[in-house]
């Protein structure tokens, strides 16, 4: 399994592509034919997306390309956020181990698809409901990916150039890969069960009015707004399904937890308003974003995933990483910090990805998370 990655930055898409391709071609092994490529570009280059697509086809006509435009991209320890940037990964994976899919070429279990990478336009109607449906079309019931949040043109690459919607890559059993999720905040209160609610309005937690319960968990007083509001703005809600655990053995949020905003309070009904509709029986755990905890969890997740592969006699060959746009840059303390943490944990491994407006894993739409896919071959 051969994998080579590269990246470049230039306001002109042709120049950015020329720089990235020169690096790829210089390191691509002679005698090997590339079959599949990943291409991520920042939305600063999206208006030149069609020209970029034609150039990719001309330079590497036998390669099938999958990717998207978003607010930021990353590759090999470097991040491009709010600037022109391009990230490429070229592979020679056998064509019978993967399948491009989109609205015209849907996923089908009978095609032997084990799991699927999903690139989604955030404006897609009922997106959260579509993810379980997509997952049901795979044998493992697992999809992963992200919302390609572009402020210009919602471009996706999937064998052809798409303007939004959903598309991606189906992965068959012959392709050895593992996927993990890292959360972006720490729990600061006990797990509570939602016992009464209306849509996104939580009215009761553990049988008690929700707002007083929340204030007690945070040690806040409703009559002291000067202290109340800064804490609430920094507080997030970790939601879990009734059958799921919320915390792992290390006291961190489990990967299946969905982190959502607290968007308002209803003192009259003693409730709290979330950014997602909820149901009775779901778990709710308050959390806060924490830089050091986020950095440590990313390191732990990446090193454990690599160690698991090596213990199984596999050699990591490439990685795909999708992170929340709200995590990149300043949240990690310095430019490129998140990508560099990942590179230190994985080693000199070809890695590309993008910064998303929401991350996809476990059939669900997440926020403030990072989703890492590690592709391996026999050692």
UniProtKB/TrEMBL annotation:
Domain FIST C-domain, chain residue ranges per copy: 210-363
Record domain FIST: where: 33-209
InterPro entries reported in the protein's UniProt record: FIST_C, FIST_domain_N
Annotated protein name in UniProt: Small ligand-binding sensory domain FIST
Species this protein is from: Inhella inkyongensis
């Amino acid at each position: 399994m051969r994998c080579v990655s590269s990246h470049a930055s230039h306001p002109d898409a042709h120049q950015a592509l020329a720089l990235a391709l020169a690096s790829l071609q210089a390191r691509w092994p002679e005698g090997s034919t590339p079959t599949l490529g990943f291409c991520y570009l920042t939305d600063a280059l999206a208006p030149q997306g069609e020209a970029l697509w034609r150039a990719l086809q001309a330079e590497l006509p036998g390669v099938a390309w999958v990717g998207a435009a978003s607010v930021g991209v990353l590759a090999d320890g470097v991040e491009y956020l709010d600037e022109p940037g391009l990230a490429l990964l070229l592979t020679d994976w056998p064509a019978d181990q993967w399948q491009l899919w989109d609205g015209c070429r849907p996923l089908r279990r009978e095609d032997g698809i084990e799991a699927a990478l999903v690139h989604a336009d955030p404006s897609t109607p009922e997106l959260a409901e579509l993810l379980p449906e997509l997952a049901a079309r795979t044998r493992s019931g697992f999809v992963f990916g992200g919302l390609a949040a572009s402020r210009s043109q919602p471009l996706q690459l999937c064998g052809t150039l798409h303007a939004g919607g959903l598309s991606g890559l189906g992965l068959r059993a012959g392709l050895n890969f593992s996927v993990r999720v890292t959360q972006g905040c720490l729990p600061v209160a006990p797990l509570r069960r939602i016992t009464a609610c209306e849509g996104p309005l939580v009215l009761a937690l553990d049988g008690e009015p929700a707002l007083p319960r929340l204030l007690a968990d945070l040690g806040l007083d409703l009559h002291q707004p000067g202290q109340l509001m800064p804490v609430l703005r920094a507080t997030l809600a970790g939601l879990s399904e009734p059958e799921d655990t919320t915390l792992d053995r290390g006291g961190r949020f489990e990967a299946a937890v969905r982190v959502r905003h607290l968007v308002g309070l209803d003192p009259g009904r003693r409730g709290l308003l979330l950014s997602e509709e909820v149901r009775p029986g779901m778990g709710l755990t308050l959390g806060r974003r924490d830089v050091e905890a986020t950095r440590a969890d990313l390191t732990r997740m990446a090193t454990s995933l690599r160690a698991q592969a090596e213990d199984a006699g596999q050699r990591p060959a490439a990685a795909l990483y999708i992170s929340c746009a709200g995590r990149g840059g300043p949240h990690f303390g310095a430019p490129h910090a998140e990508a560099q943490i990942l590179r230190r944990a994985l080693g000199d491994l070809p890695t590309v990805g993008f910064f998303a407006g929401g991350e996809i894993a476990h059939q669900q739409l997440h926020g403030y998370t990072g989703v890492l896919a590690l592709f391996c071959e026999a050692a």
